[in-house]
């Protein structure tokens, strides 16, 4: 009934008029579940899953892209504590997880074109902030949900939404205790969790189309034939991405799903091959392989972002892709690729916490290991302010203690914010899409903060 009324004629004005009554009606159902749980359980236990499916389908039909005037009420329903708990906690065998992930994907897809183009009016800014709060609730109460569905969420979130993506990628199982990434001489490859593959509720192999390309990809990964595959693949992807534009999503220039699926599929195949030999991923075991040929051939910003999306909590994917980024940095034939790798990692660290554990591990290894010669590159010295970000924020050059504030606290446990986090405000929250390091804007923000502090000291009661 709600869906039929809400989407009839696809008229936004009608949605606005009926939004309050629809939201109140569906919220009343949530409230009845909360106030009379025993009665609800006795009455609906036999068809509880059907009721949740009906709720989900109704909300899916009323999603913001179809009925934008209902967006606020829609988000209020989806984020209701009783509804979230019913979908993610009470329903047995996680039957509600896939349904709730579809609703979150609907929300991300609606925001994506506005976030991609950094065009957020005040109403959209409020909706974006509400989305961040929902992700914070899920990160705190249901981290396993974000862990298992991270791929599908990152697939529809624009690359410039760094804070939103960090919230999803920072999730880790509640029964896991993360090792301190700032522990001196931390042996990541010795962690027991590194050999465990994470759960991903997406069949990435099916996303690599057409079948002929998938067949040639598998053939090259096994025996490096046909020999022209690398050159053909690069040309094919460029042509395919331009021809397969998603016209229903304004602002979308490329098919990011294909790129993300290709990166994750090749990585999963490489991990399986390395484990079959009784080895673990490392700089030596991943080198000179067909899988690394593909990554080196596609080493540009969007593909590097797809790799960085797998740097999460300790697991086999995090370990492999961390080694992959470090190997690409070490073997890069131009400094431009090394600068892009640094950009992909750094722009995810200069926003406010949380920061994914795998991201911290990779960046710390990059700047502390002398073999990468990080401090000798020109892009680090292009401006004194940029170099100070590395030296003061990260804690110095190779051989010195690391002081970057990560997803927990600094190495001494004080929890005091570093200069970098004092200077770089939450860019994505205030200006979505502005998460890339920009020299002038950084200096302007620092100067503005200093002026505000001086005014507060002069006029403490104003």
Structure write-up:
Helix 14 (256-276) packs across helix 16 and helix 16 (301-308) crosses helix 18 (335-346). It is globular, with a radius of gyration of 24 Å. It is mostly helical. It starts with a helix and ends with a helix. The chain has two domains: 2-169, Serine Threonine Protein Phosphatase 5, Tetratricopeptide repeat (Alpha Horseshoe); 188-458, Serine Threonine Protein Phosphatase 5, Tetratricopeptide repeat, CATH 1.25.40.800. It has 23 helices and no strands. The model is unreliable at 8-13 and 398-446 (pLDDT under 50).
Tell me briefly what this model is.
The chain has 462 residues and is an all-alpha fold.
Percent range for β-strand residues: under 5%
* Distance linking N and C termini: 53 Å
Q: With helices defined by DSSP (H or I, 4 residues minimum), what is the helix count?
A: 23
Instruction: State Rg.
Output: 24 Å
List the main descriptive attributes of the protein structure presented here:
462 residues; mainly alpha; Serine Threonine Protein Phosphatase 5, Tetratricopeptide repeat; 2 domains; molecular adaptor activity; CCR4-NOT transcription complex subunit 1
Detail the topology: elements first, then pairings.
Layout: H1 2-7, H2 12-35, H3 37-44, H4 48-61, H5 71-78, H6 81-90, H7 97-116, H8 122-141, H9 143-148, H10 150-156, H11 162-169, H12 211-223, H13 229-243, H14 256-276, H15 290-297, H16 301-308, H17 316-331, H18 335-346, H19 357-368, H20 384-394, H21 419-423, H22 427-430, H23 439-458
């Amino acid at each position: 009934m709600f869906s039929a009324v809400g989407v009839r004629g696809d008229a936004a004005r009608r949605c606005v008029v009926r939004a309050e009554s629809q939201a109140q009606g569906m919220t009343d159902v949530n409230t009845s579940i909360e106030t009379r749980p025993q009665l609800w359980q006795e009455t609906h236990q036999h068809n509880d899953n059907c009721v949740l499916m009906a709720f989900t389908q109704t909300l899916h039909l009323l999603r913001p892209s179809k009925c934008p005037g209902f967006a606020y009420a829609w988000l209020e329903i989806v984020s209701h504590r009783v509804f979230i708990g019913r979908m993610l906690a009470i329903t047995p065998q996680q039957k509600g997880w896939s349904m709730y992930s579809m609703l979150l994907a609907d929300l991300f897809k609606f925001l994506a074109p506005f976030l991609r183009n950094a065009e957020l009016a005040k109403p959209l800014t409020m909706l974006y902030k509400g989305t961040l709060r929902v992700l914070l609730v899920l990160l705190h109460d249901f981290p396993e949900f974000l862990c298992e569905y991270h791929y599908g969420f990152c697939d529809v979130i624009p690359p410039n939404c760094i804070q939103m993506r960090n919230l999803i990628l920072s999730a880790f199982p509640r029964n896991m205790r993360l090792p301190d990434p700032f522990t001196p001489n931390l042996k990541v490859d010795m962690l027991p969790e590194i050999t465990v593959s994470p759960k991903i509720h997406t069949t990435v192999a099916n996303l690599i189309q057409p079948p002929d390309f998938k067949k040639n990809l598998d053939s090259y990964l096994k025996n490096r034939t046909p020999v022209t595959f690398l050159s053909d693949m690069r040309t094919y992807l460029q042509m395919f991405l331009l021809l397969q534009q998603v016209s229903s999503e304004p602002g979308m220039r490329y098919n990011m799903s294909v790129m993300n699926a290709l990166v994750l599929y090749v990585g999963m195949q490489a991990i399986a091959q390395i484990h079959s030999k009784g080895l673990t991923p490392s700089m030596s075991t991943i080198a000179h392989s067909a899988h690394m040929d593909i990554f080196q051939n596609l080493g540009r910003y969007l593909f590097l972002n797809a790799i960085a999306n797998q740097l999460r909590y300790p697991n086999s994917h995090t370990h492999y892709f961390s080694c992959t980024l470090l190997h690409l940095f070490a073997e890069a034939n131009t400094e431009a690729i090394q600068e892009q790798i640094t950009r992909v990692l750094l722009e995810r660290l200069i926003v406010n916490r949380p920061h994914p554990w795998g991201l911290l591990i990779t960046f710390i290894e990059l700047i502390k290991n002398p073999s990468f010669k990080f401090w000798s590159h020109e892009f680090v010295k292009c401006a004194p302010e940029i170099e100070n970000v590395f030296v003061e924020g990260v804690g110095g050059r190779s051989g010195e203690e690391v002081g970057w504030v990560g997803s927990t606290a600094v190495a001494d446990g004080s929890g005091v914010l570093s200069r970098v986090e004092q200077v770089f405000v939450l860019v994505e929250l205030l200006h979505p899409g502005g998460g890339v390091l920009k020299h002038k804007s950084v200096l302007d923000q620092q100067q503005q903060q200093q002026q505000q502090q001086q005014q507060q000291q002069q006029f403490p009661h104003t």
